[in-house]
Amino acid sequence: MTLLLVECAVFVASLVGGLTGFGFALILTPNLMLLLSPKTAIPIAVLLSMLLTIVLFYEVHSIAKPKEISQLIVSGIIGTILGSLLLVCIYVPLLKLLIGVIIVPFALAQLLDYKIKIDSKVFQIPVGLLSGFLGGATSMSGPPVVLFFQNMGYDKRVFRANLVSYFLILYPFSLPTYWFSGLITADVIYSTAFTAPAMIIGTLLGSRLVHRVNERIFRTITLIIVIVSGLFSIVTSLSLF
């Protein structure tokens, strides 16, 4: 029964991930934590996220502009390694609470069209470090980068393509730490393999929908996902204290 619920959560999350290029781990990880321990849920979410980005990259690689976000990628890699190392000993409820408290007000500000002019080159480094750290420790690396790209005003095609490229490069850097820390267990591998078909089907369906969603609706969907995930993160973290 638990695996069936996990598979349903994976399908819904991958549908959103296929549509927006992010949101998969944001939706999946908090739900998996209701069914599994954090140290099982997070590696599963990362492994499935890697598969999702591989599927999506085939579609968007010609649109992506990785050179524009090179500093973001490098700092994200450093943050991912640090976050992965801390997952073994970090107090997950506190981290989840901090994630929610940080991302909800920023996403609300973006949803209300409140923007702050920032230097994209200067802010790539702190945004990448924060995103990578959150990704390594919780698998939820999306919010800082999504808000950063929203502020930069990317159109939905470049927005989605750059996100997929960023995640594709980052996710593998958390795996060695997970492996040597004993977090990649037989159960994690089995659960990932069992739910992979649902993830692929959901991703492909989401990719088909992206061409039918206009720019403003796309932007609203991405920000609502961040807000809901942030609120859910706060609620679930409080229940774990």
Provide a descriptive summary of the structure in words:
- The protein is mainly alpha-helical and 241 residues long.
- The chain has one domain (2-240).
- 80% of the residues lie in helices and 0% in strands.
- The chain has eleven helices and no strands.
- The protein has helices spanning 2-20, 24-35, 38-60, 70-87, 92-111, 120-138, 142-152, 156-170, 175-180, 186-209, 215-240.
- Helix 1 (2-20) runs parallel beside helix 10.
- The longest helix has 26 residues, at 215-240.
- It starts with a helix and ends with a helix.
- 49% of the residues are buried.
- The model has no long low-confidence stretch (mean pLDDT 84).
Quick description:
The protein has 241 residues and is mainly alpha-helical. The protein contains 11 helices and no strands.
Rounded to an integer in angstroms, the radius of gyration calculated over CA atoms is: 16 Å
- The helix fraction, in percent, is over 70%
DSSP summary: helix tally = 11
Q: How much beta, percentage-wise?
A: under 5%
Number of strands: 0
Major β-sheet annotation: none
Characteristic key phrases:
241 residues, mainly alpha, 0% strand, globular
Q: Would you spell out the secondary-structure blueprint of this structure?
A:
Blueprint: H1 2-20, H2 24-35, H3 38-60, H4 70-87, H5 92-111, H6 120-138, H7 142-152, H8 156-170, H9 175-180, H10 186-209, H11 215-240
Helix pairs in contact: 1-2, 1-10, 2-3, 2-11, 3-8, 3-10, 4-6, 5-7, 5-11, 6-7, 7-11
